[in-house]
Amino acid sequence: MAAFQFVITLVLLGWAQANTCPYPNGYFPDASRCDKFLECRDGVAEEITCPDGLLVNEKAAAFRYPCDYPVDVDCGKRTAPPAAASSGNCARKWGMFKTGSDNSCGDFVNCVDGVEHNFKCPEGLAWHPTLWRCEWPDQVPTCNVEAFLGFKCPAVDELVAATNPIYGHPTDCARYFVCIEGNKPRLHVCGDKTVFDKAIGACGAPENVPACANYYPPESETYSA
User: Fold this and answer.
1) Which residue pairs, CB below 8 angstroms and at least 24 apart, start in 210-218?
2) How many Cα neighbours within 13 Å face the side chain of 26?
3) Where exactly are the structural domains of the chain?
4) Mind listing the pLDDT tens digit for each residue in 118-142?
């Protein structure tokens, strides 16, 4: 079945390269350019180029608009378009791109037809410029992890490093760091009005951590008439 589908794809690509319609209606990828396709309507073919930043997805159904983000497209032997002139933080008119320095790893911009929409990853995560998603900062090559998180894992021996040691945040009771392999800090946040309790190596009740007993403001009392 896979071989049959591969042959069909090659046939469709051949038709697209010849600017003829393999079927009366549908979208068919160009054989050589990753950003071009044929749109066929009632047997009439029109060559179309995807908007800047988008590429033709060969795996898209024939009747679905084929232009997708590059992260979802495998160009194979098809040629990708040359780099376009950037505008502001938008390397292309469509796409998601890292903004700021390597110390502000969680900032990125979603460019929609050249219009910037700024976003931040959830606290403690960094934007991965290749995968187009938020990841742990130690998994993002361009991120200066220690500067981004403001924390450096203490030096430990191999046995301790293998346990992924945990450390409280130096200034915030509700946050703590897990040092993966002893030297890759990852920020975690306690929930449900808990704080990091060093004694148990996890989040717990504030009253059990004297220095953090008043971390959360007291709940206001309500009285019924």
Assistant:
1) 211/173, 212/173, 215/173, 215/174
2) 17
3) 2-72, 95-147, 151-212
4) 999 999 999 999 999 999 999 999 9
Which CA distances in Å does 16 have to 10, 43, 46, 87, 106?
Answer: 10, 12, 10, 32, 41
* Cα–Cα dist 82/24, whole Å: 31
Collapsing DSSP to helix, strand or coil, 38 comes out as strand
Dist. CA 114–CA 121, nearest whole Å: 21
pTM of the predicted model over 0.70:
yes
Write the pLDDT tens digit of every residue in 66-112.
999 999 999 999 999 887 777 899 999 999 999 988 889 999 999 99
Residues found in the chain: 225
Q: How far is CA 138 from the centre of its chain?
A: 14
According to CATH, what is the number of the domain 95-147?
A: 2.170.140.10
2-72 carries CATH number 3.30.70: no
Instruction: Give yes or no for a contact between 152 and 183, defined as CB atoms under 8 angstroms apart.
Output: no
Please name the residues in contact with 1: beta carbons below 8 A apart, sequence gap of 6 or more.
Answer: none
| Average pLDDT, integer, range 183-192 | 97
Q: For residue 221, is pLDDT > 60?
A: no
151-212 is classed in which CATH architecture?
Beta Complex (2.170)
